[in-house]
C-alpha cells in the first residue's frame, strides 16, 4: 500500500502544481519570500484549489510515510511532473510529441531502475536521538534559509536555480518531519498533539510553501520544476540513511545503476519541464507602483 499511496499523492500533487505554477508567475517579483506573496496568491481561486489539492496530496503522502521508508517513498515523488504533464495534456486535448514521450519514459525508467537496483528499505521508523534531531533541524533550516536569501538577492537564471534549490531543501525537510509526524500518529491524536511533530509540520509547511511559490514566481519552470523534483528526494534519502538508519544497497554494479538511474530521471524531468503545457509563457514580472 505504501507505493499505491505514494503514486496517488503524485497524481494529486501533479494537478496542484499545474494550477499553482501559472498563477504564481504573475505575482510581482518584490513579493518573493514575503508572506504578502501568499496573501496575494490566496485571492486567486485557482491557486486556492491547487493548495487544497496539495493538502489532499499531503494526507496521501503521510499515509505512504506512515510505514514506508524515505528511501522508498521520496524517489517515487519524482514522478509528479509526469502526472502534471499528463493532466495538462488531457485537459487541453493536446497530443504529446515524441520528445515528451521520451521524457516520460526516461523519468519512469530512471525511478524504476533506482528502486530495483539499490533495493531501498521498504519500511522504517522515524526514531533518532535528540542530538541527531538538533543537528538535522539546524543544518537544514540554516542551509535552506541561506540559499533562499541568496536567491532573492540574485536575478535571472541564478535566482530561479537558487530558489528552486531552497524549495527542494525545504520540501526535503518537510518530508522528514512528516515521516516523524506520521509515526507519532500511531500513538493516538491526543498524544500526538502533546509532541513536537505536528507543530514542526505546520512551521515547515508554511516555510516550504513560501519558498516553493517564490521559486514558481520566477517564471522559469524548465529550471525550477526539475530542480525541486531532484533536490527534494536526494536530501530526503540522505537524511533517511543518516538520521533514521534506512538502507540502500550500493555495492558493485548497483552503485553504477544508482548513478545512471538518477541521471536518467533528471534528463527526463528536464525534457518534461520544457513542454509548453507545464511551462507558461514568460511573463513580465510586475513591480509595485511607487
Summed up:
By secondary structure, the protein is mainly α.
Number of helices, where a helix is a run of at least 4 consecutive DSSP H or I residues: 12
Helicity, as a percent range: over 70%
For the largest beta-sheet, the strand count, sense and barrel status come to: none
Instruction: State the distance separating the first and last CA atoms.
Output: 55 Å
Radius of gyration: 18 Å
How many domains make up the coordinates?
Answer: 1
SSE pattern, N- to C-terminal: HHHHHHHHHHHH
| Class per helix and strand makeup | mainly alpha
Number of strands: 0
Broad shape? globular
Query: Roughly what is the average pLDDT, rounded to an integer?
Result: 87
Uncertain segments are: 282-290
Amount of beta strand: under 5%
